[in-house]
Amino acid sequence: MLVFSLVVVAVAAYLLGAVNGSIIVARTLYRQDIRELGSGNAGLTNMYRVFGLKGAIGTFVIDTLKTAVAVVAAHYWVGHQIEKLIGADGYVIARFFAGFFAMVGHVMPIWYGFRGGKGVLVCGITAFMIQPLVGALAWIVFILVVAATRYVSLGSVIAGVIAFPLWTYIFIHNQTATILAVACGILILCMHIPNINRLIRGNETKFGAKKQD
Fold first, then answer.
1. CA-to-CA distance for 146 and 152, rounded, in angstroms?
2. Given this model, what pLDDT does residue 15 score?
3. Could you tell me which of 7, 175, 169, 168 has the C-alpha nearest to residue 78?
4. How far apart are CA 88 and CA 21, in angstroms?
5. Phi, psi angle pair for 207, to nearest 5°
6. What is the distance, to the nearest Å, from the Cα of residue 195 to the centroid of all Cα atoms in its chain?
7. Closest to 151 (Cα-Cα) out of 61, 213, 210
8. Which label site among 108, 132, 151, 191 has the fewest CB atoms less than 10 Å from its CB?
9. Burial profile 144-179: b = 16 or more Cβ within 10 angstroms, e = fewer
10. Contact between residue 64 and residue 121 where contact means Cβ atoms under 8 Å apart
11. Mean pLDDT for all residues in the chain
12. Alpha-carbon distances of 52 from 34, 116, 210, rounded to whole Å
């Protein structure tokens, strides 16, 4: 029964995650495909750089809502089942599990030819909903790195790949949760390989610049 429930959660979370806010907003409000503009990334940063604050807000709302629905649904659908199996962290694992597959859907959306965003916002919302302290600390790391360097990609990598798994390990104390946090970080790292290469070469675009990254 638990295996079946987990499969349902994984599929449902993936399909919800595949609802991409930036693509929807760009097509609805601007009659354009965000993936053909700027960096070509269907994410919040590119949306802001191309269409400004209005487009970014719409993207943020849609991507936050889809992540929240996936995570909350998993909490109530399989949380109690996992709780019976592993103990007190069952609901945390359920939220983590759904959040990860929502990230996969966002990155490789079936609705849009498997061309999506980089999963950072979905990961950030998931982190906050798993445990507010973990999420807040990860967001603080992101904000501090971006404020200091103006590189959104660097903030995303450090917060998602290093800070999120670290805070999960320190504050949640669950091996499965830490493994899922590492999996989220690996996904973010893979999606940012081009950005990392540009950072190394010194030609990555800074936040606020006209040229898209």
1. 5
2. 98
3. 7
4. 34
5. -65, 130
6. 16
7. 213
8. 132
9. ebbeebebbbbbbbbbbbebbbbbbbeebebebbbe
10. yes
11. 95
12. 12, 19, 11
Please count the other Cβ atoms lying within 10 Å of the Cβ belonging to residue 202.
Answer: 6
Mean pLDDT for 30-56 is 95
Q: How many CB atoms lie within 10 A of CB 143?
A: 12
114 token code pair: 């498997």
CA distances in angstroms from 127 to 34, 141, 191, listed in the order given: 26, 13, 18
The pLDDT tens digits of the residues spanning 10-34 come to: 999 999 999 999 999 999 999 999 9
Minimal CA–CA distance to 12: which of 135, 75, 146, 105? 105
Q: Which residues of 100-138 are buried (b: 16+ CB within 10 A; e: fewer)?
A: bbbbbbbbbbeebeeebbbbbbbbbbbbbbbbeebbebb
Distance CA 17, CA 99 (A): 9
